[in-house]
Amino acid sequence: MALPVSLFQGGSKLDITDESTIDVNRENQNIEIRLLLDAIYLKYGYDFRNYAKASIKRRILHRMAMSGLQSISEMQHLSLYDLDFFKKLLLDFSINVTEMFRDPSFYYSLRREIIPVLRTYPYIKIWHAGCATGEEVYSMVILLKEEGIYDRCQIYATDFNQVVLQKAKEGIFPIENIKEYTINYQKAGGKESFSSYYTAKYDSVIINQSLKKNILFADHNLVTDGVFGEMNLILCRNVLIYFDKILQNRVIGLFYDSLCRNGFLCLGSKESLMFSEYGRCFEDIVKEEKIYRKKSKY
Amino acid sequence: MVDALKTLLRRKKYIERSLNTSLKEKRVYQAVVIGVSAGGFAALSFLLPSLPEDFSLPVIIVQHLHPASGSYIVQHLNNKCSLIVKQADEKESIKPGTVYLASPNYHLLVEEDRTFSLTVDNRVNYARPSIDVLFETAARAYGEKLIGIILTGSNNDGSKGLKRIKEGGGLAVVQDPLDAEVDSMPRAALAATAVDFILSLEQIASFLMSLSKGKSYENK
């Protein structure tokens, strides 16, 4: 039987100092988290076992406190037997923070460096992987429209979370963010008046219907699902930072397999292909904006 | 007048305690985390250049910045310091003798395997990066081997995190509110937890150096 060595050291079994209690608690908590994530995977098929640990632990402990639970083991039980509780937890685990034209300089580069290449194709497929509530998808659509190629584009906007996907489909955003989005839009090289893309009502704005016509919102899980089409451009920004190295590598491999020859991959500003096995399969197009291109040969 | 005298006495007491503690306790610290907001540019520009080249601990800093800020502050500090100053990259291993700053618009977290994680989660205390997020995760990763320091600032970010560091057996240090350019963040931290030391910026610098030396001394 494997018990912590410290319990039996020095001949006095009950001599547990405060400090070792802290260590034991931490160890137990980590075991409980592994069990919880295993339970979720076995029961529901959602796999969070290769998420970066510190962040998922924070989310779990936050939910535990919010629900007034005493331990993670209690959460495990609830996750198995109470579907509503599990749905809450699932929402906690998905990355729902996004904004329109986040990092305007990225969209500016996209407009200048990538669109001219896409323009040469008769039909353009774009995949927004981990689209959350859709702000970045609509930003992209606005850009494509202004560049006159939206009619030739098919956009796949995917996320594993049905709740956020539904919100993305609706395209209704809080009006309080619009001022910031407008500034971002202008910095990104916007050509029109930003307000021509939405209708404001009460405390929300709704994105124009015409922007939605070539977007397909679909349930896709980067961790467990595979290739579903051949893309000219894949955007997956600020999702990989939530994964550990093993999972990052798997997902970059999935993107590699999903890209057509010379297809483009865009990551978040703090993400990189540097440590990935697939690093050598891509070349930098705009290094500081993390825009890469699949090499035809390597 | 009386207040100033009290502070002086209090400072003296803390310095004495600080010396006693570092002599008595043979604890070896492994990391320093610093939270700083308004007034931070000047505070860090004073504190970090005073750390010597052979400073043996990693220093991990959350400085509240505008989301669109560039890396000017990193370059500026790197030019002024004998230690390497850089933005913390995701999955990067934390090395001693290096100063890491959180990137604007990302939370910075410490993993238990002593690497960094970044997230774009909601703002905490209206801030991203948030001091609480760094301190709480660092407390889990380093436990009693961690020193947390709250410097000048105009909100209450970091006070929960400093409490966690204390609960985890680590050391809690707060800049003396009278010494801070903006005192609300130090005051909030003092109200939230029983800290180990209240020190001026100058004293924090010498305190950190004594810790660093203590470590290399013990290693011999």
UniProtKB/TrEMBL annotation, chain A:
Give GO MF terms, alphabetically: protein-glutamate O-methyltransferase activity
- Which keywords does the record carry? Methyltransferase, Transferase
Question: Entry's SUPFAM superfamilies?
Answer: Chemotaxis receptor methyltransferase CheR, N-terminal domain, S-adenosyl-L-methionine-dependent methyltransferases
The record's PROSITE patterns line, in alphabetical order, gives:
CHER
Specify the domain of life of the species encoding this protein.
Bacteria
Broad enzyme group: transferase
Q: Which GO terms describe its biological process?
A: methylation
* CheR-type methyltransferase domain span: 32-283
Per the UniProt entry, the Enzyme Commission number(s) are: 2.1.1.80
In its UniProt entry, what is this protein called?
MCP methyltransferase, CheR-type
Q: Lineage, please? A: Bacteria, Bacillati, Bacillota, Clostridia, Eubacteriales
